[in-house]
Amino acid sequence: MLDQDNSHRAQERENADPEERIRPVPLMAAAITLAMVLFGVGYIFLSDPFGNSSLGDRRTVADLSGPAPAAAGAAVDGKALFAAQCAACHQATGQGLPGVFPPLAGSEWVTGEPRVLANILLHGVTGPITVAGKSYEGAMPSFRQLGDAELAAVASYIRSAWGNQAAAVAPDLIAQERKANDRSTPFEGGAALQALAR
Asked: 85 phi and psi, to 5 degrees?
């Protein structure tokens, strides 16, 4: 009899097993979940995902190929080439990034001897270089993959933008420098470029 009393008291001390009726899912959480599911289903059906999968995001080959190359004899847009190839480092304003990328505005390398600028574009530069009285240590890649007319257009643009007032560069000069110097490595800083200017 004593054992029955002890077991009965032990059962009274136990909590009831949890059931959903005791702690139901909050109605707000259920409503949010339902709304998200309905939104997802609606989005799938309204966005037409069941089209031809070979079309991908539906861009055409013309959209993906970029601007058409200029026709022979047509003028090349140096500003557009600068924006695509150079502005990430030298900035659209030509001011560069202080201590990192030198400015092109007011740069003696840009407005100086066109041969030097042509070689900078063709071969690139690594190492220390002084621009407008400030020293920079970095690397500029070669752009020899661009055509002579394209490099001449970029050079002419930067020589006349942001207050620079230097003459345009002819594609013939780029072609001449490309043939005259078959180097495969960048120039080693400003000293190597100064030697080129002599």
From this structure: -105, -30
